[in-house]
Amino acid sequence: ATDPAAVIETSGIVEGENLLRVNVNSAAHNIVELPWVKSVTINRKLPGTISVEVQERVAAVFQSSADGDVIYDTEGKAIIIGTPPPGTVEVKATDADNPEILPAVISVINSIREQDAAMLNNVATVEAPDQFDILLKLKDGREIYWGSAENNHDKAVAMSTVLKREGQHWNISSPSMVSVR
Predict the structure, then answer these.
(1) What are the backbone angles phi and psi of residue 106, rounded to the nearest 5°?
(2) pLDDT tens per residue across span 27-77
(3) What is d(CA 83, CA 60) in angstroms, rounded to the nearest whole number?
(4) Which residues are CB-neighbours of 90 under 8 A, at least 6 positions away?
(5) Which of 18, 71, 143, 169 has the fewest CB atoms within 10 Å around its CB?
(6) 179 forms bridges with which residues in the sheet?
(7) Concatenated DSSP letters for 128-177?
(8) What distance in Å separates the CA atoms of residue 21 and residue 24, rounded to the nearest whole number?
(9) Which of 79, 172, 69, 71 is nearest to 119 (CA)?
(10) Do residues 73 and 105 lie in contact, with contact meaning Cβ atoms separated by under 8 Å?
(11) Element of type H or E holding 170
(12) Among 83, 29, 36, 82, which Cα is nearest to 56's?
């Protein structure tokens, strides 16, 4: 997502500059300020090469706001306002002032991704009136009630089974006792 030309420009490193005089700490601090950049490593290789390795953030969810869609990474950091990348799930939280909702939803999304990232392709939106009441709405019209962001691994395993079954409304809030109606 980060343009390599933006990385070079932001670094402040100029081609032809004396390799030993390049302030790699300053360059790294500048680059890490780019929205998608999570971390950066800069190495010098004599006689005249500087390598820049960038690790980007992974988009997890987005929320619509008056300014546009705010995209959050897997750690809950707002990355940018813009067009959400494919695989990013929309979060509809009714209590936007509750700081615990988004981390809970991101924890659920991360658990699903760890179980099987392809399962996220089925999720259209996540409704979360609070951190204890998470509902996944699937693209095919089905719903999976997740409940709270506890036992996420077990719930992700239950979800992988549910996706293969018939039924419109699933409840996996207690993954050992999955129910359908």
Answers:
(1) -65, -35
(2) 999 999 999 999 999 999 988 889 999 999 999 999 998 889 999 999 989
(3) 13
(4) 61, 62, 63, 64, 84, 124, 125, 126
(5) 18
(6) 171
(7) -SSTT-EEEEETTS-EEEEESSSSHHHHHHHHHHHTTS--SEEE-SSTTS
(8) 9
(9) 172
(10) no
(11) strand 169-171
(12) 36
Token pair recorded at residue 131? 């951190």
Tokens encoding 139: 């693209």
135: left (phi over 0), alpha (psi -120 to 50) or beta: beta
Identity at 8, one-letter amino acid code: I
Q: Which residues pair with 143 in a beta bridge?
A: 137, 169
3-state DSSP assignment of residue 147: strand
The pTM of the full predicted model, rounded to 2 decimals, is: 0.82
First to last CA, the chain: 42
Amino acid at 123: V
The order of strands in the sheet holding 134-138 is 78-81, 68-73, 59-65, 89-92, 123-127, 134-138, 143-147, 169-171, 179-180
- Measured in residues, the chain has a length of 181
Q: CB–CB of 73/65 below 8 Å?
A: no
